[in-house]
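Lecture notes, structural biology module. Today: joint structure prediction for complexes of two components.
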Amino acid sequence: MEAPAAMEAMVFWAAAAVMLVATLLTISSRSPVYSVIFMILSFAATAVLFVGLDAYLLAAIEVLVYAGAIMVLFLFVIMLIHLRAEEHEGLRLDPLAIVVAGTFLALLSRAVGDPGPAVGKLPNDLVGSPALVAETLFSRYAVPFEAVSLLLLAAILGTVVLARRGRGA
Amino acid sequence: MITLQHYLVLSGMVFTLGLCGVMMRRNVILVMMSVEIMLNAANLALVAFNKHLLAGADGRTGPDGQVMVFFAIAVAAAEVTVALAIGMLLFRRLDTVNVDDVANLRW
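The predicted structure, tokenised, for the full assembly:
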């Protein structure tokens, strides 16, 4: 179903504003726990934008995997590490870093001004439906899908090995 | 009317914020979170391209860009797991999470 254009624009601007502000607060808060909370907000805004782009399955995955699993992992590690107070420092405004970031933004804006020829819009808005994404995933991308499962297995084993080594073994 | 450019500008701005985070934060966990922010911005651009440009050079239309984001999220999950394990080890061995204190491999 096609949402009215005015509503689409409103949702976009609201989600974009939330995403930018939450990301800015993520990188600038002094406490890592606040950073995690603002980052979850940023991912939630991303999920809203995904819905606006007809990527319904990805919106669900964004909330479940990113905002859910990955951020909980970050939170666990922050709690385990238990930082001393003097290590809570915010952004260090390094002039070189500002120059690099500014240059990067300028380069990006050039690229965005000319994103190449528009081939056309997708014919329907069902393109992000879970059924269609799954069909593509398990037919055309079946081999990469299996490779990703191997990658996840390797990550699990690597983490276990690292954790055991940390005990002095 | 929200066009592809709107999403690309937003994605670029969020990516730059992530880049600033990597360069300006010293806490290794915040550095990793900034990397995640950059990955997320790239994902947003991919999904926007998928919606506004036809996927595939052969004229085939489909959610190929979304499948790519699916893989990016899976790889990000794997990367975060290992990176956080390394961060924990760092803290246990050297009792610090400041990237400036971990310069043993620097020339």
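Point to remember: Chain B has a mean pLDDT of 85.
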